[in-house]
Protein: Gamma-glutamyltransferase 2
Organism: Cohnella phaseoli
Amino acid sequence: MLNIDPLYDPYPSRRSAVYAANGMVATSQPLAAQAGLDVMKKGGNAIDAAIAAAAALTVVEPTSNGIGGDAFALVWTQGKLHGLNASGPAPLSLSIEALKKAGVEAIPTHGFIPVTVPGAPSAWAELAAKFGNLPLTESIQPAVEYAERGYPLSPVLGSYWRRAFNNFSASLKGPEFQPWFDTFAPNGRAPEIGELWSSPDHAATLRSIAESNGESFYRGELAERIDRFSREHGGYLRLADLAAYKPEWVEPIGVNYRGYDVWEIPPNGGGLVALLALNLLKGFDFSERDTVDTYHKQLEAMKLAFADGARHIAAPHSMNVRVEDLLSDAYADERRRLIGQTAQLPEAGQPPKGGTVYLCTADSEGNMVSFIQSNYMGFGSGLVVPGTGIALQNRGHNFTLDPNHANCLEPGKKSYHTIIPGFLTRSGQPVGPFGVMGGFMQPQGHVQVVMNTVDFHLHPQAALDAPRWQWMERKTVELEHTTPSHIVDALARKGHDVKWALGSGSFGRGQIIWRLDNGVLVGATEARTDGHVASW
């Protein structure tokens, strides 16, 4: 039984948790949530709804994801949890040696060097083929219509779009970046809040992906356009890289946290960091959320988890330790002893050998999906393939050029990935999907959502609305402006370098859907975004 109090809300906001019996789609854009629900009402299941929402998000929230990005999914269906890793590898021609020869000493944020093979279109096609009720053409149709007819920008979306335009105008000067401005600033500026924006190129590309079940993107006309654009501007991505790509079905990894099993995608995904932190925190007792002891222990556990993640997370074949060793109780006991009464500098341990959008869906058949998709750092690389609307991601920026590091750049290798879908079960039964988007805030958001739910019994909306913290580096932590002031002062006395953030933009934007014992769905979305829970 999910032990939450549906009436207890210590962090009241404009939103209330949403209850429904037949189906639910929660994401950061109302239009995308409604697209998923519309597909469900036409006979689609939760998987089809997730595809519809994900495809729509590439159009109605391009500031955070795109057709040229990556995706991960956790899918509960037919009594089992399935994991899909649709992140792409580095091109085969991209290596440390090639970059050093070109005089590159560090992987840049924008341009062709950090571009890796996009995986998102393959995720949509794979999910539809394996678990969907509908053909991809029906699931993607709402996204096609929004791209063709246009839609008005919502407030948070418009703010991020304007910020990206200003940053790109100042920093992206080469001719390879002009297609981005042609696509996302067709009038020489970012579209305004409430202004209609459309992209026929997006529509044509989405239609091509749907009609070919993704083949055109990896082995057809779209792949040829990507290859041509890369060659014209000295990029490394080639037709052969796209043609060789396939998404991977993986076994989710998890830890038991006070009777609940918390599940994540295994490396190269960064969900391991959230599990490492929860494994440390389950050794403490927490009676209240808003105490300095709770905040301090959470932050110290998070620092240790991130240190281990930075040292060890990489593509599976490159990891120098086993995931099961990192998540062992013996290793957690050893690391937990490092958490004292004052802030410490984080260091990785050695266990014994042995920009992003998030959405979740659920239907009356028992299917549930936790899905996350991203270009990274907002619009990604700043590159748009001419005439397609395909904004290419910059996930390769997470590689290191240190050949001795587990996450060093290698041809055909996947980088350490920040985007992570989460899922909660209890006694082998689904509780539901959850996620918090936002770079390296994501595992920190997962830990806080799980603890708010399990330790402090908050219903989904209260669990999301609660003030957030995030560890930044060394002893520096950032606290949301709604954090009680006595917490801020007390953490500073414990040696934390506390920054009090005036806004909420850097603290992630999440969604939750829980299934109650009677089958009723209860969902929530962030007050920090334009989010919406569509239900029926």
In short: Residues 164 and 292 are 36 Å apart (CA to CA). The radius of gyration is 22 Å.
